[in-house]
Automatic annotation (TrEMBL):
Residues 294-382 form the Fatty acyl-CoA reductase C-terminal domain. This is Fatty acyl-CoA reductase. Belongs to the fatty acyl-CoA reductase family. InterPro entries: FAR (IPR026055), FAR_C (IPR033640), FAR_NAD-bd (IPR013120), NAD(P)-bd_dom_sf (IPR036291). Residues 5-223 form the Thioester reductase (TE) domain. GO terms for biological process: long-chain fatty-acyl-CoA metabolic process. Keywords: Lipid biosynthesis, Lipid metabolism, NADP, Oxidoreductase. Its EC number is 1.2.1.84. SUPFAM superfamilies: NAD(P)-binding Rossmann-fold domains. The lineage of its organism: Eukaryota, Metazoa, Ecdysozoa, Arthropoda, Hexapoda. GO terms for cellular component: peroxisome. It catalyses: a long-chain fatty acyl-CoA + 2 NADPH + 2 H(+) = a long-chain primary fatty alcohol + 2 NADP(+) + CoA.
Length: 388
């Protein structure tokens, strides 16, 4: 990991910087976090700030696995933090989509989606039954957001004397400035969906052109996490900060068409001609339009490939593209407002120099410039995908 190119500038300015790192092996899914006794004691004796971002982010994760990783992992790490002799703050990286039953999300703790004992009773009775799980987590789109919401409520009720901060980022995307403009290192978040549209594979989705899509640069989330930890107050209340954009500096799907997708086409990254993502609000009309505009043409193209002695591929690729689209439907079809008042207030309390160094105010994002840099970053920093 330390050989990643984004550390190049740091190595050049401070060659000995990595001597400060003490690697410790662990796993939030294991008993006692998978820590060796001596490593656990090292943490208890020396750590003052805990950042907890380990999670399974799969929308389709079976509930028993999501609970063990996201909820139990959080519970175990909080318990360890409560034993740390120098603990100053516990920072939990949640998600702004943990409470999508709210049309307007504010920076507060919401009631849990279920009682923990009821969750484990359900798992005992139904295991990883997908249909039963969807009914049980009613109001939540998937097990990821469900377990994140449950974890937030648990921290609020059980953090004890440990000052606790919850950071709620929306869809985390490419860096706006640090370590490099447009930098990203994986295909998580909304990037695969956007690339499917940019390459011409995805042409239809449920929603509206003018729906706000809440995305945030990864360095904004990092900067907010640093500031919130440094400014954490000793209080009985958990401090919540949303790392979001829709309330103060919204960007829409039409903006993505205009800047991200067109930039990809300019670099000739489209597999199919004339890529553009169109939106349909009706689920029924979307299914009909998909059939005639994508599914039938895919079968025709595969037939042509067979007749010319080539391996058919369009139907197979399209099936995976539609599967991903449908997994994101809850997010593309909604139009939330996610407020970031406390985040903006926290950022404005910094000195002018620190405000520039630790940017996290959504007002600072220039969307046309950012979306173009984001698309260039996908081309420059990510390995080409194998199309399913």
């Amino acid at each position: 990991m330390l050989n990643n190119r984004f550390f190049t500038r740091l190595k050049n300015t401070d060659p000995d910087c990595f001597k400060k790192l003490v690697p410790i092996s662990g796993d939030v899914r294991l008993p006692k976090l998978g820590l060796k006794p001596e490593d656990e004691q090292t943490l208890i004796d020396n750590v003052s700030i805990v950042y907890h971002g380990a999670a399974t982010v799969k929308f389709t994760e079976p509930l028993p696995i999501a609970m063990n990783t996201n909820f139990e992992g959080t519970k175990k790490l909080l318990e360890l933090s409560q034993r740390m002799k120098k603990i100053e703050v516990f920072v939990y990286i949640s998600t702004a989509f943990a409470h999508t039953q709210k049309q307007v999300l504010i920076e507060t703790i919401y009631p849990p989606p279920a009682k923990v004992e009821d969750v484990y009773k359900f798992i005992e009775d139904y295991g990883d039954d997908k249909q039963a799980t969807l009914k049980f987590i009613h109001g939540q789109p998937n097990t990821y957001t469900f377990t994140k919401s449950l974890s937030e409520a648990y921290l609020s009720q059980h953090h004890g004397n440990v000052p606790t901060v919850i950071i709620r980022p929306s869809v985390v995307c490419a860096a706006i400035k640090e370590p490099l403009k447009g930098w990203l290192e994986n295909w998580y978040g909304g990037t695969p969906l956007l690339m499917n549209a940019s390459e011409g594979w995805l042409r239809l989705a449920r929603g509206h052109y003018n729906n706000r899509i809440d995305v945030i640069p990864v360095d904004f989330v990092t900067n907010l996490s640093i500031i919130a930890a440094a400014k954490a107050k000793r209080t009985n209340d958990v401090q919540v900060f949303n790392s979001t954009t829709t309330a103060d500096n919204p960007v829409t799907w039409s903006d993505y068409n205009k800047y991200f997708i067109k930039e990809m086409v300019r670099h000739r990254k489209n597999d199919l001609p004339y890529p553009e993502l169109s939106f349909i609000e009706s689920k029924t009309l979307l299914a009909i339009a998909t059939l005639f505009m994508q599914t039938i043409p895919a079968h025709v193209l595969d037939l042509w490939l067979k007749l010319t002695g080539k391996e058919p591929r369009y139907v197979k690729i399209l099936a995976q593209v539609i599967l991903l689209r449908d997994a994101y439907e809850h997010f593309t079809s909604q139009n939330w407002i996610m407020r970031s008042d406390r985040t903006r207030e926290l950022h404005s309390s910094l000195s002018p120099e620190d405000r520039e160094e630790f940017q996290c105010d959504p007002i600072q994002i220039n969307w046309p410039e950012y979306l173009r840099d984001y698309s260039r970053g996908v081309i420059k920093y990510l390995k080409p995908r194998k199309m399913y």
